[in-house]
Amino acid sequence: MFTDTGLTSDAQPAGSIQRNDRLRSLRSSLRPGQQEIADWQGGRLAVSAVPGAGKSTGMAVAAALAIARHQLHSRHQLIVVTFTRSAAANIKAKIRNHLKELALPQGGFVVHTLHGLAWAIARSYPELSGLNPDAVLVTPNQGHRLIRTSVEQWLGTNPTMYQRLLEGKQFDGEETERLRRQSVLRTEVLPDLAATVIREAKSSGLMPQDLRKHTANDEYSILAIAAGLYEQYQGQLKARNLIDYDEMILGALRVLEYANDRDSLHETPKNRWQAQVFAVFEDEAQDSSPLQTKLLEILSADPTDASAQNLVRVGDPNQAINSTFTPADPVFFRNFCQTCAAEDRLAEMNQAGRSSTAIINAANFVLTWINRNYGKPSDSTTPTEAPFRPQAIHPVATNDPQKNANPAPEGLGLELHTPDDVYQTVEMIGQRAIALFHHDPNTTAAVLVRTNEQGRFVARELSRWYDEKVNVFEVGQRDRQSHIPGEILSLLQFLDRPHSPDYLKAALSVLVGRRLIPNQDLNALVLFPEQFLYPSPLDPPQAATVQQSSRYCTNLLRARLELPLYQLIPFLAYTLDYDQTELATADKLSERIMQQTQQSSLGAMLEVLTEIVNSERFEPVEAEDDDRYSRPAQITVITMHKAKGLDWDYVFLPFLHENMIPGSLYVPPLMQFLGDFTLSEVARSQIRAIVHDYALPDTEEAWERAGYLKTAEEFRLLYVAMTRAKRLLWMSAANQAPFSWNKPENIDARKPCPVIPALKERFPLSVIGGSDENDNVEF
Ligand SMILES: Nc1ncnc2c1ncn2[C@@H]1O[C@H](COP(=O)(O)OP(=O)(O)OP(=O)(O)O)[C@@H](O)[C@H]1O
């Protein structure tokens, strides 16, 4: 007989009865939707969860129950896949704790990110994956040498197509104009096209030859250009022993799809992996590309029946916010949910305990309103979906296990403000947060912004007005850790040429920035580097601050002489007083450089590092179990993207203007000679059509579709942002705001995001004070 935990209950020894009790109490700590995952016994299951439903909590308990129920161990395991390393660390800790409570060994599961899993598979069979385990991983952007060289090589071999691009919409043969167009094509249009299509096509599993099979009705044969650029890029990767993230997934698939025709008696790598894997649980499934899903489907399949998969995919299609820069179209997860629903294998987690009901009502209203008003692009013939899956958030039942679920609101719970301008906006946020912290210092608050420039503006204005009164933590600046390669480069350049005033000044600026030496007139110090570094007895005596700075620099130079090259970057990182995660990122940087230079010379290190700084997105090591984002009485300033998965008592959403949310696609004036579209967006839409098996759109249709995808994603981002709030959701669109956030001082009249007037109409009590010029101004 089976109990609700799925374990047999007859004739059990005392230990196992005790464990069964624990399993039962673990299961009953879940709310109904979560229990559906916990009760999974095998097969495919889709779980569509609303924000705050407790996906990770539910999945961690379900994992522990599955490990107990099926007696999993290190040779027959549950694989848990999540999107980021910090999410992986988080869920791992939760599952471990449950297993400890159940007195079960820890070997029954592993947690991976998708790429970590793919790399483990690809690396285990290098001859089948075609990937060299020593290859260097790069994340090139459009300025990277790989992309630039691919463009140059393509130009050399495709003069006719290039000529057609140069002619553009029209061309009168004027020489300066020709030169200008050449430069724009070489340095902007083609690198942008290459970077976009390579990522889009490759992560959808399309090779250059697949793109060539399709011809769209467009004047430039954009897909053929894309295929050519992509082919050059693949050649470059191979020649230089580099790989990118998509290569890992493709390599893993090559391993798993290898068919052992010649010797069917021997098991294939696929069989071996499948025997090892009991089931796959995937979190954030809305963010996976079709190729990543295919990988998980193969791994979770029964070795004798590919259609029988032990696969649980948990996600929220309404929080898909990566689809405009990856092919992770939310359509894929929605389709998975639909197929599972037809088989009665869809669980919907509709209850969420995070927010006050006023906030839930606002989020539900916004979702429905947007679907009604932006359901379909006008005149579109391409099949398309509304921005959101219709799924309302419901408050939890009164007996819910979560303490203080659906907490009482702060004031009205929802506030809609119309400040005069963006400066007044930040002033209001500061005042409000200080008052709230004064009332209860144990509460948390965040300002969620659309761009890093907005984040910098908010942090700067907050510190200008309230520096002494409140602690501000700007995530963008500290967390991107993008400063690390740049700072290390400045110090290494100084070590290479200490007598260069420019390098000395850059190194000193880094030291000042890290508050290791006092701020002073650096120009005076670097006039005579020799005298500053090694003053002779005849030189005028140095001030104490200068002496301190000089000592720092000479210590660095001594280390250069005494340490082997591979220890140099870790030493510099240590000297710069980096914290734990920054040190780990610096170590990763050091390893990467050593791998590429074989520790040959400082010059070689500098060359590689310069390239990383100029044209790569070097991925930092993420902090595990980090509480820095939600410390009590701190205002966290963070982008909406980065805020996904987090929550705060009070959430401030300023600058909700139409030109940002939803915004619109933009053709830079420089590129307008080609037409009213960008080649990269058109190519992206065309590749999506290939992946989804739609008719290939022409230029105009492709551009319109790209715009629609962007609009839908911006609105989902707003929904993610709104659903981060527990007790107060403070939203505003100022009457006056900048067009470009690089110049926030140039403000003028700006329309609010269309959601704002709709919210004001639906929730009039939440409209707080102030003149609402937006309602009267003619735009
Ligand atoms: N069964 C439960 N008992 C107690 N607390 C719970 C339970 N389920 C969830 N919670 C709490 O609810 C909060 C939200 O849970 P979680 O972060 O797992 O939600 P989520 O679905 O991943 O949210 P989102 O999708 O919006 O990021 C957490 O603080 C978690 O501890």
Automatic annotation (TrEMBL):
The lineage of its organism: Bacteria, Bacillati, Cyanobacteriota, Cyanophyceae, Leptolyngbyales. ATP binds at residues 49-56. It comes from Myxacorys almedinensis A. Its EC number is 5.6.2.4. PROSITE patterns: UVRD_HELICASE_ATP_BIND, UVRD_HELICASE_CTER. GO terms for molecular function: 3'-5' DNA helicase activity; ATP binding; DNA binding; hydrolase activity. The keyword Lyase does not apply. This is DNA 3'-5' helicase. Keywords: ATP-binding, DNA-binding, Helicase, Hydrolase, Isomerase, Nucleotide-binding. SUPFAM superfamilies: P-loop containing nucleoside triphosphate hydrolases. Residues 383-645 form the UvrD-like helicase C-terminal domain. Belongs to the helicase family. UvrD subfamily. Pfam families: UvrD-helicase (PF00580), UvrD_C (PF13361). One of its GO terms (cellular component) is cytosol. Residues 394-414 are annotated as: Disordered. GO terms for biological process: recombinational repair. Residues 28-356 form the UvrD-like helicase ATP-binding domain. It catalyses: ATP + H2O = ADP + phosphate + H(+); Couples ATP hydrolysis with the unwinding of duplex DNA by translocating in the 3'-5' direction. InterPro entries: DExx_box_DNA_helicase_dom_sf, DNA_helicase_UvrD-like_C, DNA_helicase_UvrD/REP, P-loop_NTPase, UvrD-like_ATP-bd.
